[in-house]
Amino acid sequence: xxxxxxxxxxxxxxxxxxxxxxxxxxxxxxxxxxxxxxxxxxxxxxxxxxxxxxxxxxxxxxxxxxxxxxxxxxxxxxxxxxxxxxxxxxxxxxxxxxxxxxxxxxxxxxxxxxxxxxxxxxxxxxxxxxxxxxxxxxxxxxxxxxxxxxxxxxxxxxxxxxxxxxxxxxxxxxxxxxxxxxxxxxxxxxxxxxxxxxxxxxxxxxxxxxxxxxxxxxxxxxxxxxxxxxxxxxxxxxxxxxxxxxxxxxxxxxxxxxxxxxxxxxxxxxxxxxxxxxxxxxxxxxxxxxxxxxxxxxxxxxxxxxxxxxxxxxxxxxxxx
Length: 321
Known about the structure:
Blueprint: H1 4-10, E1 13-17, H2 23-37, H3 44-49, H4 60-64, E2 68-73, E3 76-84, E4 87-93, H5 102-114, E5 122-127, H6 131-136, E6 139-149, E7 154-163, E8 169-172, H7 180-190, H8 192-195, H9 203-210, E9 218-224, E10 227-235, E11 248-254, H10 263-277, E12 282-287, H11 291-296, E13 300-307, E14 310-318
Parallel strand pairs: 4-5
Antiparallel strand pairs: 1-2, 2-3, 3-4, 5-7, 6-7, 8-9, 9-10, 10-11, 12-14, 13-14
């Protein structure tokens, strides 16, 4: 049986933003998780009142606000998380996924989202049964609390906790060559016409080419909860039509379910730092999809260029000074 890491890399388990049509499936996973995993921590009366008068509509506001990420396998929601700046608001996995590592991975995703626009510790309100899980991931209890459910206003004891796991770790690919097969699968899924069956590219060959420490070409891997979640490379050669320019940022990819959480920005800033340390004074990038990221990181748009029948935007970034 594949590990969680292998299932995420192969696409057997996918992460993606929830949409409103997912609300019934999310609610079903929510009930499944609570009724099976919380039963030993709360009384039968509390369990009976937990979902009294509630429906899938409780998840509509969070989904509509873009706060929720779900994990699914074969179309079945295995778990989900949600966060707002400064707080992880929801995290549940089905009993069949408990102990697999999926909860920890979703927590890292939620903490990334909670840290968007927020400095300082992240807050989570933990049920009795989940306290040890959060402690394992760097949270500490701050105070006891409770919430109320049902017509009888049944109280449920919880623990307010603060802290959270570290942000994604970014390392040279040369330090983690064992991750190449997993990143290779992401390359093949992201660029099937080039790296897929019958395509002219060889993803593993290119990754081996990027596996250097302090010289170009240089590849960087972003890891979240130990799993590769993004990749970016700096290479001397770029567009054949612009041989006088370089070096070039390219081969940039972030796991689809983890985009817009700052991973691409972290990779780009670290790549810029390492390029400056190697004595580079200016970087270039030609892109059809990453213009907003480049602009947020202070890159300058130069012009449009044609490449392989596609119109790309050309950017540069002075380093140092």
